[in-house]
Amino acid sequence: MKICWAQYTLWAVMAILALMTILSGCGQKGPLKLPEKAPVQSQSTQQ
Fold it and tell me: Which residue, 14, 33, 35, 46, has fewest beta-carbon neighbours within 10 Å?
C-alpha cells in the first residue's frame, strides 16, 4: 500500500491544529497581578 502526498499533508495539518489547540491554553488570562486585599480593621475598643 502506497501512501500519497495528500495523506502526509493531512497528518501535518492535524498535527499543527493539535499543537495550536494545546498552545492556546497556555498563558495567564486576566490581570497579571493578584488584587490587593482590603486592609483588615481591628476592632479595638478605646475608652
Answer: 46
Instruction: Cell numbers for 33, please give them.
Output: 497581578
What is the torsional sign of CA 33, 37, 38, 44? negative
What's the CA gap between 16 and 1, in Å, rounded? 26
Binning pLDDT at 50, 70 and 90, where does residue 17 land?
A: very high
Q: Percent of the chain beyond pLDDT 90?
A: 30
